[in-house]
Design brief:
By secondary structure, the chain is α/β, with parallel strands linked by helices. The chain has helices spanning about 1-10, 25-40, 85-90, 105-110, 115-130, 140-150, 155-165, 170-180, 200-205, 210-220, 250-255, 275-290, and strands spanning about 15, 45, 65, 75-80, 95-100, 185, 190-195, 225-230, 240-245, 260, 265-270.
Length: about 290
């Protein structure tokens, strides 16, 4: 903790880095850190490789400051769980701190940082998204205690709920119709399978996060335990997404394609120009081995 503060104090220009295609969790933690650095009167920039951030996060403080070019004058970068220098494209002369965003609130508390309304709202947005609106299996009393603390600090929880949980674009609705119309149910309706072409994405105007929202929603269908999405990129490579509400280990399956993630959700890439049906069958065979009969 002290080493992080020392580096921040010595730095003249600090850059906060968000994930590619950042979700509300990534945006919320970065926004809170941005506010903290402004409190310390630091020159700060916010970098994200994704040019356009989802409109649902526009209410979070400082989102309008996000830039898709890394400032050459930066001497310190703060990555909130995004990766290392090589993957982030950071210049060797720029120092890098990695902070797991789930520990950011504890970092603020340990250093007696004043949590203002903007920070509290940003952190609440992160908590709301990461806990799946407090419905995740990982939610416990500590989660609700943290929510209470953030609300007491001024978090606008109603605004977070409105934008993150309720707001939806026309493009997302169009995509949802396409995905559910073409959905396949496999393994006695225990696996929901979606295949999306690049043309589907272009015609609806939807973004990747819209696909993931439908994928998560499909787990609410009766009997469905695992959902799989195979999305074709513009270069005909495939991006795979796995979600589970059972004992099926998504990351174990994704690891067969050098993917990453967690037990309940994982992603992977298939760079070889395989047919999407062939990839679907390969993944389904792996899922069948994991499903408990």
């Amino acid at each position: 903790m002290n080493e992080i503060l020392e580096k921040i104090d010595k730095a003249s220009h600090i850059v906060i880095i968000s994930d590619v295609n950042p979700d509300a969790g990534s945006i919320g933690s970065a926004s809170a850190m941005y506010s903290f650095l402004l409190q310390k009167h630091k020159k700060v920039s916010w970098f994200c490789k994704t040019e356009v951030v989802n409109y649902r996060f526009s209410f979070i403080a400082w989102v309008e400051k996000i830039r898709d070019s890394f400032p050459a004058s930066a001497d310190l970068a703060i990555s909130l769980g995004c990766g290392d220098k090589k993957n982030l494209g950071i210049e060797p002369m720029c120092d890098l701190i990695n902070i797991e965003r789930h520990f950011l609130y504890d970092f603020f508390k340990a250093n007696e940082v004043k949590i203002n309304k903007k920070m509290a709202t940003a952190l609440y947005a992160e908590l709301l998204y990461d806990s799946d609106a407090f419905l995740s299996d990982e939610v416990d009393g500590t989660t609700f205690a943290l929510a209470k603390e953030l609300i007491e600090c001024g978090a606008d929880f109603k605004l977070c709920n409105k934008y993150i949980m309720k707001s939806v674009s026309l493009a997302a609705l169009r995509l949802k119709a396409v995905m559910f119309k073409n959905m396949l149910l496999e393994c006695d309706a225990r696996v929901a399978v979606f295949c999306l072409s690049d043309e589907d994405m272009r015609l609806t105007g939807a973004v990747t996060e819209d696909c993931e929202a439908v994928l998560a929603e499909s787990l609410n269908l009766i009997h469905v335990e695992v959902s799989l999405l195979l999305k074709q990129n513009s270069d005909f490579t495939i991006k795979g997404f796995l979600r589970s509400n059972s004992e099926v280990d998504c990351v174990k399956i994704a690891a067969n394609f050098d993917g990453e993630g967690h037990k309940k959700r994982a992603d992977f890439d298939v760079d070889s120009l395989e047919q999407i049906d062939d990839i679907k069958n390969r993944v389904l065979n792996l899922i069948k081995k994991e499903i408990i009969i």
